[in-house]
Specification:
- With 124 residues, the protein is an alpha+beta fold.
- It contains 3 helices and 5 strands, in the order βββααβαβ.
- The strands form 2 sheets. It has a 3-stranded antiparallel β-sheet.
- The two termini are 39 Å apart.
- The relative contact order is 0.18.
- The structure holds L-tyrosinamide.
- L-tyrosinamide binds next to strand 3, helix 1 and helix 2.
Length: 124
Amino acid sequence: MRADDRAQDPGRSGPGGTDGAGAADVDRQRGVATKTRPKVERPARFKVVLYNDDYTPMEFVVALLQQVFSKPPAEATQLMLQIHHQGAGIAGVYVLEIAETKVATVHRLAEERGHPLRAGMELE
Ligand code: TYC
């Protein structure tokens, strides 16, 4: 699109667009131009926390961080060691339903193998 087309482009949206939200509204009774801001709320996000324990094998945690949290191998190893040394670490940040599913998946995979690995969620 050319720069001089942009001002009249009916396709754009969002603040200042032509979809009503954020457009200047005229209060005809008082003749006062007012502006309505659209209220767009971001969904809450949750940190999925992995806790250290003395029994879950390091290799299991590294594999889980790759498979469940999509960490590249080197990052998964680093994060596992950080959890091992510091007691806990953030495996990822997600919206509620995804975070809940990640926690449940960690617990299911750990239980299937007889490991005591625990995960939890914290509001970001
Ligand atoms: N501390 C475990 C061990 O020495 C390894 C481990 C790391 C366990 C991270 C859990 O979230 C964890 N085998």
